[in-house]
Amino acid sequence: NLPRETLYIEPRSEAPWLAVSLAFFACVFVLPFLLLLWQKVKMVPTYLGSVAGLILLGFWLERFSMVVPSIWLDGGVPLGWIELLVTLGFLGVFGLCYALYVSTFPLLPLRESLIVGTPRKGPY
Predict the structure, then answer these.
(1) What would the mean pLDDT of 51-66 be, rounded to a whole number?
(2) Stretch 5-16: mean pLDDT, rounded?
(3) Is 60 exceeded by the pLDDT of residue 56?
(4) Total Cβ atoms within 10 A of residue 61
(5) Residue 24, Cβ neighbours under 10 Å: how many?
(6) Can you give the residue range of the structural domain that contains 6?
(7) Number of separate domains in the chain
(8) Is residue 84 part of a domain?
(9) 122 within some domain
């Protein structure tokens, strides 16, 4: 079934999609591998969070390069305001859901706070 799979790979291995494919490979594998070689990057939460954000950007680029070349038949990469705003909208919905969850349920279970040693009143 090689001809069937080459129809999928061929557009992504030519310009302009080659740059997107190389960018997501760099964001998901090459740059995190090189950055995580240093111990300081692994020990400082801000640096580690930046590497995680880079990986998330790479996964977004991967999904973008999997879907868009199949439906976008014009030349060029259609990365514009609409795509960025849809992504920001999904991030906003995720943030809202997380904020509602955190405001409803405690992050640390009540029994676990007793083990940690937080002083509490009650029959426990």
Answers:
(1) 91
(2) 79
(3) yes
(4) 20
(5) 20
(6) 2-116
(7) 1
(8) yes
(9) no
Calpha distance 120→122 (Å, rounded): 7
Mind spelling out the 3-state secondary structure of the chain?
Answer: CHHHHHHHHHHHCCCCHHHHHHHHHHHHHHHHHHHCCCHHHHHCHHHHHHHHHHHHHHHHHHHHHHHHHHHCCCCCCCCCHHHHHHHHHHHHHHHHHHHHHHHHCCCCCHHHHHHHCCCCCCCC
Phi/psi of residue 96, nearest 5 degrees: -65, -45
pTM above 0.90, yes or no: no
Which sign does the torsion angle of CA 79, 85, 88, 94 carry? negative
Asked if residue 35 is part of any domain, the answer here is yes
In a domain, 121, yes or no: no
Quickly tell me which residue has 């405690």 as its tokens: 106
* The pLDDT of residue 92: 97
